[in-house]
Specification:
single chain, 286 residues, alpha/beta, 2 domains, 6-stranded parallel β-sheet, 10 helices, 42% helix, 12% strand
Length: 286
């Protein structure tokens, strides 16, 4: 009877040394789920009496090998667990701006207050959808959604969820945070208080990784200034200038903060400038 791909259960006529060596390699290759079964089979092979001491040593060696294989599998499983959210965000951003790649980073910056003139249509979400359908967001790209509370509530929440699903289907990553409501961002105070107040963070790496199922969970709050400054600290100036793009509400502080951090590829959306399709294409042209 084989255990794993190469080892065999030692027969009673093998010496202890030979038995241990014959089974060790095969058990180390065996799936861990089979280890308890192997242990049970091996326990039944223990020969009685002092005359079987050498054979018992072989059995013990095989049992020890089984334990070692299980421990090795557990160690590999732990090392393969997903990294923390900040590390994942960092890896996604750096991968999206790698030289020669088709992917990019698109920041979507909202003003903290105000509402769309047409409640059922959000101009920025519509611009992101067009960017996706027109091929401007290749697989591996990252969309940084810097959103106000109103986008997480009806009627906009349903549209936001649809957008998340569409981006996910095209293998475009999304990270998200709430827009800081304070007028001066880093220096003001938020009008939210108590246990329901959003958690404030200080880096783009602290943004959440939302999906349609978890959108209702609280997103952290991040100022536009810190978003772009910490992004610049993780990326090169060349990447900021050529691989980071901004779609923003005309009243968003993101327009100013992006320029200060070398992100010059930006487009105000919903400013009544006309020819939205043409301006969107121009934004992504090399």
């Amino acid at each position: 009877m084989k255990i794993g791909d190469g080892g065999r259960i030692p027969t009673p006529d093998q010496s202890g040394e030979t038995a241990g060596k014959a089974a060790t390699d095969g058990l180390l290759k065996a799936p861990p789920a089979r280890v308890p079964v192997a242990r049970g089979l091996l326990e039944g092979l223990r020969p009685p009496g002092a005359a079987g001491a050498g054979k018992r040593a072989g059995v013990e060696a095989v049992v020890a090998a089984a334990s070692e294989a299980a421990a090795l599998h557990r160690a590999r499983s732990v090392s393969a667990e997903p990294s923390s959210s900040p590390q994942r965000v960092k890896q996604m951003l750096q991968h999206a701006v790698r030289p020669g790649g088709a992917s990019r980073v698109l920041v979507v910056g909202y003003a903290p207050f105000g509402a769309s003139s047409a409640p059922s249509v959000d101009p920025l979400m519509e611009a992101v959808s067009r960017s996706l359908s027109e091929g401007h967001l290749a697989a591996g790209s990252v969309v940084v959604m810097h959103v106000p509370d109103r986008l997480l509530q009806p009627p906009h929440a349903a549209g936001f969820e649809r957008l998340l699903r569409a981006l996910d289907q095209h293998k475009v990553h999304v990270v998200a945070a709430r827009v800081d409501k304070a007028v001066y961002g880093d220096f003001g105070t938020d009008d939210a208080a108590g246990a329901d107040a959003p958690r404030r963070v200080g880096s783009v790496l602290d943004c959440a990784l939302p999906d349609a199922a978890s959108l209702r969970t609280s997103l952290p709050m991040l100022s536009s200034r810190k978003l772009f400054r910490t992004m610049r600290s993780e990326l090169t100036d060349d990447a900021m200038a050529n691989k980071v793009f901004l779609l923003a509400d005309p009243q968003s502080m993101a327009l100013r903060d992006a320029l200060e951090c070398k992100a010059k590829r930006q487009l105000p959306v919903g400013d009544g400038g006309g020819d939205a399709d043409g301006r969107l294409k121009s934004l992504f042209q090399p």
